[in-house]
Amino acid sequence: MSTQVDSTLALATSPRKGRRLKVKRRNTRGAGRMLVGLLPLVLGLALWEALGTDQSFSFPRPSSWWAAASDMWQAGELAPALRRTVLTFVLGLSASIVVGSALGWLIGASTRFHQALNPILEFIRSTPSVAIVPVATVLFGVSMRMSIVVMLTAIIWPVLLSTTTARRTITPVRLEMGHVVGLSRSDQMRKVVFPSLLPAIMTGTRVSASQGLIIALIIDIIGSGEGIGRVLVEKQQLYEAASVWALMVIIGLLGLVANGLVGAVDSYVQRGWRTES
Amino acid sequence: MAGDAQTNDEPEESASSPVYELKEVAVDLTGVLGTRRILSDISLTVHQREIVGIVGRSGTGKTTLMRALGGLTAPAAGELLLNGEPISGTPEGVVTIFQDYGNALLPWRTVAKNVALPLEGRMRRSEIRERVDRAIDSVQLRGRENDYLNSLSGGMQQRVQIARALAVNPAVLLMDEPFGALDALTKASLQDVLLDLHSHNDATIIFITHDLDEAIYLSDRTFVISGDVSAGDPGHLSLELDVELPRPRHQVRTRESPDYLFLRHTLGDAIDLARG
Q1: Which CATH superfamily groups domain B47-74+84-93+170-276?
Q2: Hey, which bits of chain B come out as E strands?
Q3: Domain range holding A102?
Q4: Pick from B108, B204, B95: which is nearest to A176 by CA?
Q5: Closest chain A residue to B149 measured between Cα atoms?
Q6: Is residue A37 part of a domain?
Q7: So where are chain B's domains?
Q8: Is the peptide bond before B248 cis (omega within 30 degrees of 0)?
Q9: Whether the predicted pLDDT of A277 surpasses 50
Q10: To probe the interface with A, which of B94, B106, B113, B128 has the most A CB atoms within 10 Å?
Q11: E strand or H helix at A264, and its extent?
C-alpha cells in the first residue's frame, strides 16, 4: 500500500525533476561547445603572436595590445573614458526602456493616437539610428545630460514600436477577462496589461541595447568629445595600432557583457512560462 | 412582503426566483460598417440554479447575447434585469468563462495564481489559499497548482478557467462556447465536471454552444437562436425547449434515451440541421 503511494508520488514529481536535470545538462553541453567554438580564435591569436612583430603598423602582436591597454590605464586615459561611455550607454538605455514602453503603451492603447502617429513612427523606424545622432546633437548639445537625450532619440524606437504593437495586439478577451473577474483599473494595468507587454519590451530592449553601444560610441566621436569612442579615433589618427586593437577588444567585451545582462534579465522575467518558439 | 423575505431562504422558493429577466431586448453594435442591429426582441427568464443552453449557428448573435448578459454590451432597447435591477457595467457575482482559454488565462501565472487572480486584495491570504484549494480540487487539478499553463493540455487549462470562476462563488456562470475548442472526449469529461459541480452548488449557468447534443445534455432548458446578422436579419429566439431528462445524466445512457432523441430531433428541425 505504502509503496504504491510512494511510486505515484515519484511519478508526480519526476517530470519536473527530469526537466530540470535536462536543462542543466544542456547548459554544460552548451558551455563545452562554446569552448570548442573559441578554439579557432585562440589558435589564430597564438599564430599571430608567434609570427607577428610589435613594429607592424597594421598587425601588432596581441601581447602588445595588453601593454598598450595598461599604458593607457596608467596614463589615466582609459578609466574616465570607459566610465563616460558606460554611463551614457546605461542611462540612455534605461531612459529608452522607461519612456519607450510608457509611450508605446499609450500609443498602442488608442487607435486614434496610433493612426495619427503611425506615418512618423514608420519614417523614424526606417531611419538608421546613427543618422539621428548628428541631428540630435545639433538640437540638444553635447553635455552628459544631453548625451542621454541624444541616446534616447536614437534608440528609443525598438522598445517603443514593439511595445506599441504588443499593446495593440493584446486580444480583447484578455482585457474583458479582467473586467469580468472584477479587477480594478490599476490591477488590470499591473496584473494583466503590463505582463502582457513585458516580452515585447524585453525584445525591444535587446535591439535597443545593441544599437545603444554603437550610438554611445558615435556620441563620443562626433558629440561629446569624450569617452572610449573618442580615445579610439585619437589612437587611430596617431597610428598607435596596438592601442586601437586593445580598445576594439575592450569595446567588444563591453558589448558582450551588455548583451549578456539584457539576455539574462529577459530569461529571468519569462522564466517558467516562456512559450517555446 | 415580510412573508416573502422569510420564505426566501427556503430552497423551493429561491429555486424559482428569476435571476435574469429579458424583455424585448435588442442589441446594436457599431463597427467599421456603421451601427447594426445584432439581436432583436429577445425575451427570456432564467431562474436560480437553472442550466440554460442557447444553441444556434454562427452569425446569429450568440456571443453578443452573452456579452449583454455579462454587462459588456448595453442593450439598445428593451429591459435587461439581473435580480430585478437593470445591469450597468460588469455585475458582481456574474462570471464569464471564455472559449479562448489561452487568452483568458495569464501564462505568467501558475495554476494557483491564475485561480487566485480575482480574490487578491479582497480577503486574507489564508482565505484566498483555502478558496483556491477548494476550486482546484473541484475541477480535479490537485497536484498541478504550481505548474505554468504551457505544461497543461487544453482541457486542463479550461478547468483552470472554471476553477477561477468558482473561486469567487459566482451566482451566475456565463459560458461562451466553453468546450468548443476541445476534442470530443475531453469535452465529455468537462461536461460531467460541470454537471457534478452544479449538483452541489447554487450557481445559475447560462451557456451558448453550436453543439445540439451538448445543449440537451447539460441544460434544463434550451433556446434556439436564429437569424443571419450579416444579411440584416438580427438574431432572435425561435424555440424554447424544456429538457426534462433525469439527473444525474450519463454520457452514454442519457444520450440513447427516447426522450433525448426526441429532443434532439425537435432541436435539429428548429435549427434546420438538414440544411447543412
Answers
A1: P-loop containing nucleotide triphosphate hydrolases (3.40.50.300)
A2: 18-31, 34-47, 51-56, 77-82, 85-86, 94-97, 172-176, 204-209, 221-228, 233-242
A3: 76-269
A4: B95
A5: A273
A6: no
A7: 47-74+84-93+170-276, 107-162
A8: yes
A9: no
A10: B106
A11: helix A241-269
A27 has pLDDT over 90:
no
Number of domains forming the structure of chain A: 1
Distance CA A108, CA B225 (A): 36
Output the CA torsion sign for A231, A233, A236, A237.
negative
Give the CA distances from residue B225 to residues A247, B43, B59, B64, B240, in Å, rounded to whole numbers and listed in that order: 74, 11, 10, 12, 9
Q: Do the beta carbons of residue A145 and residue A163 sit within 8 Å?
A: no
Q: Give per-10-residue mean pLDDT for chain B (276 aa).
A: 42 64 92 87 94 92 92 92 89 91 94 95 94 92 93 92 92 92 89 90 92 94 92 90 92 92 92 73
Place of cell 504593437: A165
ipTM, interface predicted TM-score of the complex: 0.82
B151/chain A closest Cα distance in angstroms = 9
Chain A residues with CB-CB distance to B under 8 A? 12, 171, 173-174, 176-177, 179-183, 187, 191-192, 195, 198, 270, 272-276
* Nearest-angstrom CA–CA distance, B201 and A151: 60
Chain A, chain B: beta-carbon pairs less than 8 Å apart: 59
What's the N-to-C CA distance of chain B in angstroms? 53
CB contact (8 A) between residue B104 and residue A191: no
- Spatial distance between the Cα atoms of B20 and B46, rounded to a whole number of angstroms: 5
How far apart CA B178 and CA B27 sit, in angstroms, is: 22
Name every chain B residue with its beta carbon within 8 A of the beta carbon of A198.
108
In a domain, A5, yes or no: no
Tell me, yes or no, whether A241 lies in a domain: yes
Q: What end-to-end distance do the CA atoms of chain A give, in Å? A: 43
Whether B90 sits inside 8 A of A180 (CB atoms) is: yes
B104 to chain A, closest Cα gap in Å: 5
